[in-house]
Design goal:
The chain is of the alpha+beta class. It has one domain (about 75-270). It is built from seven helices and 13 strands. It has helices spanning about 10, 20-25, 30-35, 45-75, 75-80, 155-160, 210-215; strands at about 5, 100-105, 105-110, 125-130, 130-140, 145-155, 165-170, 175-180, 200-205, 230-235, 240-245, 250-255, 265-270. A five-stranded mixed beta sheet has the order 1-2-13-6-10. A five-stranded antiparallel beta sheet has the order 3-5-11-8-9, with no helix packed on it. A three-stranded antiparallel beta sheet has the order 4-12-7, with no helix packed on it. The protein is globular and about 45 Å long. The N and C termini lie close together (about 10 Å). It binds 2-acetamido-2-deoxy-beta-D-glucopyranose (3 copies). This is Ubiquitin 3 binding protein But2 C-terminal domain-containing protein. InterPro entries: Ubiquitin3-bd_protein_But2_C (IPR018620). Keywords: Membrane, Transmembrane, Transmembrane helix.
């Protein structure tokens, strides 16, 4: 039911492999799911036809969505955050928002303590280490959804590899810190370690694990998203959300690219 804004992940949910739906969406156990379930009593050929139709629809939607946003989401454009206020990431205001969404950040900026004056452009390369922190920013519009949280979205190894997405890590990546920080007046360009936004408060920690492992390893229960420490109120009015992502005694590196399946730090709408 959630979508990867501006992609309509809602519809991709209906793919034969529903793992993406699992990752994207806590409340994915919709009745439609079971109708496409090959294990149902429906004859195998009928299930197959349904799956083929679902894949075709999903691909068509994906292409439409990619075409309409390709100007904003490729890596080259990410390197020009000035032209990239981010509002368009959440869709036009007249667009009806019926399902909760997953939002890709409008800026992804590295700062490096070891090179305190170094300015990095916003880009896809995410690196966390003892000397590297990442700053993420989202421009949220009004929404009927009143609760949001920030989390890692990690595909299973197999799903990631199928899309050429992987990450390297060492140390504990189950307690990655998400800090609320000051909003940089001049935007997300020209940030260095020295000029980085200042921490206001630790919103919480998140585990960098596929959702299934998160639930298993952290002993989470149904509806755990609503308990998340990184949850905050949103939707009443447009807002700029800026966070620092950091970790202690650990290292994590990957490319955060706007495509399915997400491998990302993203903002989720709920409730
Ligand atoms: C796979 O991903 C790596 C790193 O993200 C990239 O350098 C490479 O070009 C990609 N390969 C393909 C076939 O897309
Ligand atoms: C971040 O801190 C500011 C200032 O205290 C506060 O207004 C804002 O609501 C906080 N944002 C989040 C997402 O916690
Ligand atoms: C970037 O920041 C540095 C140091 O804070 C400053 O000297 C420089 O003028 C800034 N450049 C731009 C283009 O704002």
């Amino acid at each position: 039911m959630a979508s990867y804004s501006p992609l309509q992940m809602h519809d991709l949910d209906h793919q034969p492999e529903d793992t993406e739906g699992d990752i994207l969406l806590p409340d994915k156990h919709t009745p439609e799911h079971s109708t496409a379930d090959p294990s149902s009593k429906r004859p195998a050929w009928a299930a197959l036809v349904l799956q083929v139709i679902a894949v075709i629809c999903a691909c068509a939607l994906y292409n439409v969505a990619s075409a309409s946003v390709s100007g904003q989401h490729n890596v080259q454009k990410l390197r020009q955050p000035n032209q990239f206020p981010g509002i368009e990431l959440v869709g036009s205001p007249q667009q009806k928002q019926r399902a909760p969404k997953l939002y890709f950040p409008s800026a992804i900026v590295r700062v490096n303590k070891a090179l305190p004056d170094q300015v990095y452009n916003s880009g896809s390369h995410v690196i966390l280490s003892d000397s590297d922190s990442m700053f993420f920013q989202w421009h949220l519009g009004q929404s009927k959804f009143t609760s949001c949280y920030i989390d890692s979205i990690v595909p299973t190894v197999e799903d990631g590899l199928a899309a050429n997405k992987s990450y390297t890590s060492s140390g504990s990546i189950t307690e990655i810190q998400i800090w609320n920080v000051t909003t940089p007046v001049e935007g997300m360009t020209n940030l260095s370690w020295k000029t980085r936004p200042q921490r206001i408060a630790l919103m919480g920690t998140v585990a960098f694990l596929p959702e299934k492992d998160k639930i298993e390893q952290l002993g989470l229960e149904d509806g755990w998203q609503s308990q998340l420490a990184t949850r905050f109120s949103c939707g009443k009015e447009a807002a700029v959300i800026t966070v620092e992502v950091a970790c202690n005694s650990c290292r994590l590196e990957f490319e955060q690219i706007f495509s399915v399946p997400p491998l990302a730090f993203d903002l989720m709408e709920i409730g």
